[in-house]
Amino acid sequence: MKNFILLLLTSLSVVVFPAQAKGKLSWGGFVSASYIDVNANNYYGYNSGDSGPLFEAGLRGFWYINPNWSVSGLVIAQESGDWFESGLDVDYLSLNYKVPTNEDWEVGFKLGRFKISNGIYGETRDVPFTRPSIVLPLSVYPHILKEQSLRADGIRLDLDYFTLNGQQYKFAASIGKEAFDESFSRRFFGQDQGGTFESEWNSSLHFSARPNANWYLGLEYRRLKMHLKDSIDLAPSASPVSLPFDFTIDTDQYIASLQYAQQRYEITGEFTMRRGGTYAEGKNDAAKPLAPIFDGSIDMNAYYLQGIFIVNQQWNLLARYDNSHFIDDDIETNLRDLEDFTLGATWNFHRNFQLKLEHHWFVGTSMLPPVRDLNPTRSNNPERYWRLFAMQLSYRF
Amino acid sequence: MIVIYWRNLTQFLKQRTTALKIVALFFLVSLSIPIHAEVWLLTHSNQQVELSAKQIRAIFSLRQKNWPDGQVIELVVMDDNNDLHKQFCLDALKLFPYQLSRIWERQIYTGTAIAPTIVNSEQQMLDTIKNNPNAIGYTSQEVSNEELHSTIVD
Fold first, then answer.
1. CA-to-CA distance for B126 and B150, rounded, in angstroms?
2. What distance in Å separates the CA atoms of residue A3 and residue A303, rounded to the nearest whole number?
3. CB-based contact, B83 to chain A, within 8 Å
4. Which of A98, A276, A389, B19 has its CA 20 to 30 A from that of A326?
5. What's the number of CA atoms in the CB half-sphere (13 Å) around residue A91?
6. Helix (H, G, I), strand (E, B) or coil at A298
7. Distance between CA atoms of residues B102 and B90, nearest Å
């Protein structure tokens, strides 16, 4: 990212000076505070009890240099429980180039850290005003794997076509590396695990169509491969022999989205299919025979159905059914599936303020961290039937 | 006694059925079809550009960002609650107001657009556009003076 910032500044010095003074800087942001209460399991963290406060703040900037060039960025600060790193993070920072075309077509490139198109809500999932609920459906937007499909460092192409009747077709393709922090290793292997996952150059394809105001259709493909190098050691800490492993996650994911909107209501359904697996490589002779214990399929099918009733401009009500299901029979029942019945309400009581309330009834724990705790003495998330209540106050400027 | 009343009532209703149907139909139609007021596109007189329906959609969905002379477009709109805003969304953009807000938010928070200016009244809309030669908005009536230019939205 540091190299990119240097490249960005160098590029700007070339781009900006001939551009004359026709640019514009637009900025703004949001602040939100949430309270999440869970009656069982470790949704929020492993040290802070079953519930706790969450804070999110973001500052965005868009520098429109000229019709072809722009720079955009969003810095986010988050305090969201023990499973995630707290503090500042660059959500995206990119140099954008729009190819001169006619009014039917738009072609643009983003270089740097960009957002990945990921379902209907994935691109702006950290911005409270843009999501339908505080906790997004874990089937398509898994909380624990958030960094996998949030953003990447690389290049993205956007191709848009607009017809005279207002139809819109969009194609996007990107290639980049996702940035993971140490918390991802903890979310995957339990709170004792350190080390940072490193992404390969992963690709993403997106197609969407909006034939009229009522319908939206989206299709997506994500290729994701990442490694954890020299960080796993199965030997006890006092042991003179080490058992080091490299670990790999390799998946292909498909998402289909369909949305139907009317003046008073909106129905959304998204289905996702993930195919792939995990495997490890023992780094010494003692570890090699143990490598197969990390082999596993993580094939899954998941979907949600959501209805939003727009009572008026201030109020809307939400009802949702969410279902995630791992295909592999070897996975124990509680980790194999997750169902979530949600009821929620949003109150936009001021142009800049929003209050959200929601209640979730869960069955299963498959999308809760850790995915696979390497410490067998710990019992994580034992309850199959559990509830979550969330409340969030957001302000934008 | 009750039977007599019931017969009288049914006879009365039979006689009035046709009239009642017409009244009910008129009532329903008047409820379901909103009164179609006019909406005018409003720009500063410096920007008297003829805009196609497609260009209007592109500007108000924050995709087209500059005027033909290269100046940055300043989009001025009213709140989602405002009736004129609702009508403009439906007539000119073929979108529900909440859909337009969502398109804006997605573009603004993924770093591809300049946020619009939101005003509270038509008078404020006129004043804002009067003071900004690159602004565009809408109004409920024709405005034509030295500083402003309006064209009807088809």
1. 11
2. 39
3. no
4. A389
5. 26
6. coil
7. 15
Residue B90 has φ and ψ, to the nearest 5°, of -70, -45
Q: Which of A366, A374, A340 lies closest to A134 in space, CA to CA? A: A340
Residue B22 gets which letter from DSSP?
H
Q: Which of residues 53 through 82 in chain B touch A, CB cutoff 8 A?
A: 53-55, 57-58, 63-66, 70-72, 79-81
A10 has a pLDDT exceeding 90 = no
Sign of CA dihedral B128, B133, B139, B143: positive
> Between chains, do B106 and A261 touch, taking CB under 8 Å as contact?
no
Residue A392 pLDDT grade (very low, low, confident, very high; cuts 50, 70, 90)? very high
> Which of B112, B134, B153 is the best residue to mutate to test the A interface, defined by the most A CB atoms within 10 Å of its own CB?
B112
User: Do A72 and B106 touch, CB atoms closer than 8 A?
Assistant: no
Residues in contact with A85: Cβ distance below 8 Å, sequence separation at least 6, in sequence order: A181, A182, A183
Question: Mean per-residue pLDDT for A98-125?
Answer: 93
Give the torsion through C-alpha atoms of B101, B103, B109, B115, to 10 deg. -60
Between the CA atoms of B98, B104, B107 and B108, what dihedral angle is there, to the nearest 10 degrees? Answer: -120
Alpha helix stretches (DSSP H) within chain A: 2-16, 182-189, 333-336
Choice among A80-84, A211-215, A317-321, B104-108 with the minimum mean pLDDT? A80-84
Tokens representing A346? 């949003």
Among A54, A183, A70, CA closest to A126: A54
ipTM of model = 0.85
Determine, for residues B105 and A130 on separate chains, whether the beta-carbon distance falls below 8 Å: yes
Q: Are strands A300-310 and A315-326 parallel, antiparallel or unpaired?
A: antiparallel
Residue found under tokens 């596109």: B41
Please give the C-alpha separations between residue A292 and each of A321, A377, B100, in angstroms, as whole numbers.
36, 21, 52
Mean pLDDT of A55-80: 94
Name the helix (H) or strand (E) containing B5.
helix B2-32
> Which of A220-234, A238-252, B37-51, B93-107 is predicted least confidently?
B37-51
What letter would DSSP give residue A83? T
pTM for this structure?
0.86
DSSP result, B27-68: HHHHHHS------EEEEEGGG-----HHHHHHHHTT---B-T
Among A191-195, A216-220, A386-390, which stretch is predicted with the lowest mean pLDDT? Answer: A191-195
Is the alpha carbon torsion for B146, B148, B149, B150 positive or negative? negative
